[in-house]
Amino acid sequence: MPRLTGRKLLLTRSADDSAEWASALAAEGATPIVLPCVRSEPLGDVALAGRLAAAIARADWLVCTSRRGVDRVAELAGTVLPASVKLAAVGKATAQRFREHFGRCDLAGQGTAAALGAELVARTDLRPGARLVLALASNAGPDLAARLRAAGSTVERFDVYRTVPAGPLDPRRPLSGLGCDTVIFASPTAVQGFANQIEVDRTGQFVTIGPSTSKAVRARHWDVAAEAREPSLSGIIESMLEATHA
Questions:
Q1: Which is it for the CA torsion 109, 233, 241, 210, positive or negative?
Q2: What CA–CA distance (Å, rounded) separates 133 from 125?
Q3: For 223, which DSSP code?
């Protein structure tokens, strides 16, 4: 029997990101409801495009942690990359986007930037002094770059897009009218976008992807019903199941 049968789960990621999660949750028996609470905006101009292309030309690895990052690299630097540059991605979807734009992906990490960093550091071909280019969201954390630098790599980070919260609604929609029993947050930005749109008029079950998102939820005096130990959809599902059976 599917593990989430009967659950009505509100997804607050962007529409395209939520679509991927919705399919996985439906396979677990849940009813997913999509309410986009974040959106992305491209960053960069001709000058950034030139710097990025030059950095990639001298790099050993190009690293992207999202599909949008890969899209922006293709837009800014073009779809023809030096054969000497290896491509690393967070997750299957980002790896697939690399293949769509560039015809290959050399390393698909398991779900998080931290996990990808560990996999890169463990590789025997990541020699000391290796040059890595990171193409990220402007609000992505510093941990990936720090992990790689600590291993002796040279890292150049380029912020190629940003995520922003959904704008305010007036009046806001009541949570009680959304038909969900649980709200899933995957970032502090989504918490802000949700608060801009929704009036929390009843006690809600809020589930988060990790500590920084939980902090954003609690800052609004909302209770966190469950927090994923691992920042992924599977981690979120496990945290919900543990909270249900506690």
A1: positive
A2: 16
A3: -
Domain 8-37+166-245 fold: Rossmann fold (3.40.50)
Distance (Å, whole) CA 93 – CA 87: 14
Assess contact for 184 and 34: CB atoms under 8 A: no
- Enter the pTM of the model: 0.81
DSSP state of 181: S
- The rounded distance, in Å, linking the Cα atoms of 25 and 194 is 20
- In a 3-state reduction of DSSP, which class is residue 120? helix
Residue ranges of domains in the chain: 8-37+166-245, 44-161
How far apart are alpha carbons 170 and 219 in whole angstroms? 22
CATH class of domain segment(s) 44-161 = alpha beta
**26-65 confidence digits (pLDDT tens):** 999 999 999 999 999 999 999 999 999 999 999 999 999 9
Classify residue 133 by its DSSP letter.
E
Q: Which residue has the tokens 């009505």?
A: 8
Helix (H, G, I), strand (E, B) or coil at 17: helix
**Contact of 212 with 190, CB cutoff 8 Å:** no
Locate tokens 């992990």: which residue?
147
Integer angstrom CA distances of residue 114 from 42, 56, 90, 209: 24, 22, 9, 14
